[in-house]
Amino acid sequence: MQQADWKAAERADFLIQAYGGVTKLADALGVAKSQPGRWRDGDERPGAIAAKKLLDLDHVMGRAILVWAPEVATRWMGSSNAFLGGAKPIEVLIARGPNDVIDALDATMSGAFA
Q1: Which residues contact 99 (CB under 8 A, 6 or more apart)?
Q2: Which of 60, 68, 88, 109 is placed for a possible disulfide with 72 were both Cys, Cβ 3.0 to 4.6 Å?
């Protein structure tokens, strides 16, 4: 069965740019340093676990960039967050998925505009 085209290369490229490079994105996703570049270049597709992480991070970063510049969104992802009990959003995203991180992002955004 052929796998649907979910734009892995485009998503990887967006996140590589947002995170400031292949190595930083690889570190955030917990994958080998060469993988995001291979995904971007179409040389390989992410496996099931990496694909989920890539899609989740793409979704969260897309939401965050609606409000902040990419470097600010990336810094927010790597900073301790009170809404998440002091955990870093990227760690919560990788461990539990995007739901709690989206809630924290929404809480941060609503506080910023209150």
Answers
A1: none
A2: 68
Show Cβ contacts of residue 107 under 8 Å, excluding neighbours closer than 6 positions. Answer: 83
Cα–Cα dist 45/60, whole Å: 21
Are residues 36 and 22 in contact, defined by beta-carbon separation less than 8 angstroms?
A: yes
Q: pLDDT digits over 58-87, tens only?
A: 999 999 999 899 999 999 999 999 999 999
CA–CA gap between residue 82 and residue 108 (Å, rounded): 10
What pTM does this model have?
Answer: 0.90
Enter the tokens of residue 1. 């069965």
